[in-house]
Amino acid sequence: MDWAQGLASVAFVSLIILLVRYVFGKKQGLPPGPTPLPLLGNLLQFKSRETHKPLLELSKKYGPVYTMYIGPQPAVVLCGYQAVKEALVDQPEVFSGRAQVPIIDLSSAGYGIAFTNGERWKELRRFSLTVLRNLGVGKRSIEERIQEEVYSLVEFFKETQGSLFSPAFFIRRSISNVICSVMFGKRFEYTDQKLQTLLDLVEENLRRVDNIWVQLYNFIPSILKHLPGPHNKLRENYQQQLEYVDEIVKLHEETLDADNPRDYVDAFLIKMQQERKNPNTEFIKPNLLSSALDIFFAGQESTSSTLSYGLLILMKYPHVKDKLQQEIERVIGRSRKPSLEDRSKMPYTEAVIHEVMRFIDFLPLGAPHCVTEKTQFRGYTIPKGTFVIPVLHSVLFDPSLFKNPYDFDPGHFLDENGMFKKNEGFMAFSAGKRICPGESLARMELFLYLTTILQTFDLRSATLPEDIDLSPEYSGLGKKAPAYQLSLVAY
């Protein structure tokens, strides 16, 4: 009996080894990495919600470029500035693909900009960037829209009369109005319930990405797609977001003037009319709805989170806040509105804003890429379509580029004369062909919001600076500021 059991155990182990080799195999030429399990790949090595941490630990053993498995699919992981730069910056076209993530495909169904590839991505991105530029994004013409929202927010803040409150909700609503004015041609009152429902759905789906069922779906979609679970709720939520945008589109269709586009939706509808006889056109209603949601998310989620986090950081480091306010007083004073023209005269403010974005590390892994063709990289052969994970955290905290990477230090972006200096490691918006299209808008918003708030108020916390905890909350693959309260005392 013992002999038979021993033989059975050996046979079982041998079968597992053969199965691993059969399912995963050693992909010819890929970098080495941790051994995967059948079906699950390397899922069990990602027990932490801080997904970037196990990836960094693995890089200590396998180097800055290694292979892990998402289910049966290999993914090449890039750690550190040099490896990420060589891929996204030095070979931008080859590494411009967007990895097909099963849980994303379950919701957006392959439409939109953020998670598409090929001609669809190229056409929609090119069109969207052109329209956004025409609508003033990245130009001075949008400055007044931002200032309008800033001052609406400031007026609300004044009504708090120095009492403690949580600013996150109001910042989020204010920032969302900037992108809404561009996308939908209107702003919404803070009490607008439909917009709040949309924001709640976006936030809920970010939280749901952390769910183990959702993570499992990415590893074994062929099985879980037939089963009930939280992954289906994520799809239902996204469908409600599409319905919200569809209502806005229908209203635009009723009042459309092809000679006078008011916003992004109008521009897309006009393009749909122009392309209606083209059977291969990408300008169709599903792409309009998903693209609008992609831009809306990119235009409000990261900026509002960054601003909320930034105020908390300034309360943690009052000497930085004081120096910021001194520069505002010197350059702008208190009698006029901050202007984008002031940026070039305010190097310390620019350095602080960059350091906030670096330090909070909003998307530690960025968004997953894939290679668009078979390519050679650092002596390895990466097949076409292979997942690529550029760990942006490893760039933003690379000690070769940032002297004290885990300290909040605006000096990372200042030269010896106190002037602003660029840092190659600043990839808060990613890099290469897939760099965030909302970068210019985000920079404008952060400057105008932060300077206006600090020009008008002093920040006060009920907690001593040394006791303020900056540990982030994790929401999906992103970070956001922990819940906190402050009081704003008007000057």
Automatic annotation (TrEMBL):
The keyword Cytoplasm does not apply. The keyword Endoplasmic reticulum applies. Pfam families: p450 (PF00067). GO terms for cellular component: endoplasmic reticulum membrane. Coiled coil: none annotated. Its cofactor is heme. Heme binds at residue 436. It comes from the Eukaryota. Keywords: Endoplasmic reticulum, Heme, Iron, Membrane, Metal-binding, Microsome, Monooxygenase, Oxidoreductase. GO terms for molecular function: arachidonate epoxygenase activity; heme binding; iron ion binding; oxidoreductase activity, acting on paired donors, with incorporation or reduction of molecular oxygen, reduced flavin or flavoprotein as one donor, and incorporation of one atom of oxygen. It is found in: Endoplasmic reticulum membrane; Microsome membrane. One of its GO terms (biological process) is xenobiotic metabolic process. Belongs to the cytochrome P450 family. This is Cytochrome P450 2G1-like.
